[in-house]
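Folding Problem: From Residues to Backbone Shape
Fields: amino acid sequence; protein backbone structure tokens
RECORD BEGINS BELOW THIS LINE
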Amino acid sequence: MFCGIGPLAVKSAVKRQGLKVVCNDLNPEGIKYCRENIKLNKVGKRVLPYNMDAREFVKFHVAQSNAKEPEIPKDFLKFDHCYMNLPVDAVEFLDAFIGLFRDANPEVWYKDPSDSATLMLPLIHVYGFTFEKEKEAALKYFVERIGKAMNYPQFTEKDVVSFHNIRDVSSTSHMYSTTFRLPWVVAMRDDNQESSPQIIKK
């Protein structure tokens, strides 16, 4: 969602043959050089760059699954991982996932198109800074922050798949990556409705 000049997007495609990547950055200069890096590394058929606001980009991507003639090729439509590598405020962008999959095309996103319980949700990898030096305290900090961003206070440490230190920027600033599966309730929730979403079988 915040690919910059493409260090993660391009490197991933180079290292893993067959991997398909759709990447985005708001800065047109970043995307300009991302395209150059894609060309230099000969991964143009497997890395698609976009220049949009991150929230609008992820909404656009999922909405493409319903387009009659999608701009994003069909074999790129379903994504299994979402990297949010803007450590300053990426966590706050998690609100973009609230209700994101309510109208997603079942043929693309459900294992069984007639059963919304089979929605195949992506792993989210979100980066962030914290002043907490100890890993346990840092995890608690990010769990609370992530739950707040998704308006999902039920989010706990048990929902975290992976949590690791990326680097220490200074003695008081530490960068971590938190990985979790997007909760079904968050993905399908309509915050304009008072009731919680229900699993629907057609």
About this structure: The chain has a mean pLDDT of 95. The longest helix spans residues 135-149. The chain is about 30% helix and 20% strand. Residues 78-202 form one domain.
